[in-house]
């Protein structure tokens, strides 16, 4: 399986940046109060000035009360859930809203919410036309990419409800759906394929990780040992974890005596997939696996020159030159 070109998901961050600060009741201040005229020759003017000051002081509380009365009331938690659910449903998002925080309005006046869902990721929801739903995991992934490029980058509105910031919870669930059998210890959204499918990186504790792609017909998985040969990078997997995975796969086979210190994916054909293993002692091997990673054949590096160009991790001594023919 070849990794497809990633498409930026910056549009999600740009949408979230459109959200303004929450609407709240503000006091309508009357500015600085005037002072009475202190000219002793104009007592009447002074009295009128004092009267004006008193009128201002009396009018100020009324203005504040009017401002509070005119400011729109923030929705109750229950009202926010109902409104957020309406946006999620209109946007065709499979989310049963369990909690919603009102975020404010967009410049166009659309109300916005952060919502948690009974399952899966949370969303930033905007009651615009058309309605917009932005996945919290996608937002977090884009923010991570942007900050890696520029630590001071403005990453826009981000989800802050604890359930929504638990990206590992969502990625672990996706990994289980995709059939990944490992203890997931890291994960992130990393973009989209050229077909528009969402792609996530899954980090595994002590083992090689995966890229998982959410296609229309189900999940597609690609282990990081293969990803790294497709001009891409896995951030959450190490060479040692890839070697440990290869060592586990050859256990009980002819290649089991090899204490794998380094592994390399070589490619695949109709006969299976091929990996080279460098051993801590002795010669390395090339192993052919079936799709379930059962060992099908083992080729010592000395005799594997014709298998995908031969071994690269192990230096194989050149065969001794044939003796010269007698004259």
From TrEMBL:
Q: Which residues form the signal peptide?
A: 1-25
Q: Where is the composition biased (Low complexity)?
A: 63-73
Q: Does the keyword Signal apply?
A: yes
Composition-biased stretches, type Polar residues, lie in: 34-47
Q: Where is this region: Disordered?
A: 27-76
Record keywords? Signal
Q: What is this protein called?
A: Uncharacterized protein
The taxonomic lineage of its organism, from the top, reads: Bacteria, Pseudomonadati, Pseudomonadota, Alphaproteobacteria, Caulobacterales
């Amino acid at each position: 399986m070849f990794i497809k070109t990633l498409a930026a998901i910056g549009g999600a961050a740009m949408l979230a940046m459109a959200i303004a600060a929450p609407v709240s009741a503000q006091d309508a201040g009357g500015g600085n109060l005037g002072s009475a005229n202190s000219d002793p020759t104009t007592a009447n003017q002074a009295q009128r000035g004092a009267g004006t000051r008193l009128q201002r002081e009396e009018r100020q509380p009324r203005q504040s009360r009017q401002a509070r009365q005119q400011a729109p009331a923030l929705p109750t938690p229950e009202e926010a859930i109902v409104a957020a659910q309406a946006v999620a449903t209109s946007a065709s998002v499979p989310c049963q809203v369990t909690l919603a925080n009102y975020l404010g309005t967009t410049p166009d006046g659309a109300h916005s919410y952060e919502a948690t869902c009974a399952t899966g990721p949370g969303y930033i929801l905007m009651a615009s036309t058309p309605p917009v739903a932005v996945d919290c995991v996608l937002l977090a992934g884009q923010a991570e990419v942007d900050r890696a490029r520029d630590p001071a980058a403005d990453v826009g509105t981000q989800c802050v409800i604890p359930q929504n910031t638990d990206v590992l919870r969502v990625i672990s669930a996706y990994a289980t759906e995709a059939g990944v059998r490992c203890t997931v210890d890291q994960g992130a959204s990393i973009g989209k394929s050229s077909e528009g499918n969402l792609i996530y990186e899954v980090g595994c504790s002590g083992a090689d990780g995966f890229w998982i792609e959410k296609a229309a017909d189900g999940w597609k998985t690609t282990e990081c040992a293969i990803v790294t040969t497709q001009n891409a990078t896995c951030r959450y997997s190490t060479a040692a974890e890839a070697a440990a995975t290869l060592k586990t796969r050859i256990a009980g086979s002819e290649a089991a005596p090899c204490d794998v210190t380094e592994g390399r994916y070589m490619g695949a054909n109709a006969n299976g997939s091929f990996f080279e293993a460098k051993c801590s002692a002795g010669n390395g091997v090339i192993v052919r696996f079936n799709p379930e990673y059962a060992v099908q054949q083992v080729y010592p590096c000395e005799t594997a020159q014709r298998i995908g160009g031969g071994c690269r991790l192990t230096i194989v001594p050149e065969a001794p030159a044939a003796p010269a023919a007698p004259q």
